[in-house]
Amino acid sequence: MISVFGKHQGKGWGRVIAATLKGIAFEVWGFEKIFWINDVTNRRSTKLAQSLGFVLEESYSDNYRLGSSGTGLWFRWSMERPAGMFPGVLQGADLDYWAAPKTTEMLKVVIQAKETLDDH
After folding, report:
1. In whole angstroms, what is the distance from residue 58 CA to residue 45 CA?
2. What's the DSSP call for residue 103?
3. Integer CA distances (angstroms), 117 to 26, 51, 107, 108, in order
4. Is residue 56 classed as helix, strand or coil in its secondary structure?
5. Quick check: 67 and 5 in contact, CB under 8 A?
6. Which of 9, 22, 34, 99 has the fewest CB atoms within 10 Å of its CB?
């Protein structure tokens, strides 16, 4: 779950965070599909999901309510991996890789690998 609180809302931080996570999911991890879930009354989140290209998959109710203004009614959005995208840098890594702790060194390797791919 990501959230932007208080005085930081409405300044583009949610868009930057969401776009970055979308890029990581598709370009680094190689996910085939990602999801966005928000309370139906959260119009900013709905607008942001749509502007990033997410498509409404379903609306549903749940006993879980987010905060005091939550309704328990939710939108579930999805986005498919764009066609023709190069495989994710970490796509196909085995379970031992994912179970091991990650460090900033690992992130540097991922970034360097992506830059190498972008140069070719």
Report:
1. 15
2. -
3. 15, 28, 15, 14
4. strand
5. no
6. 99
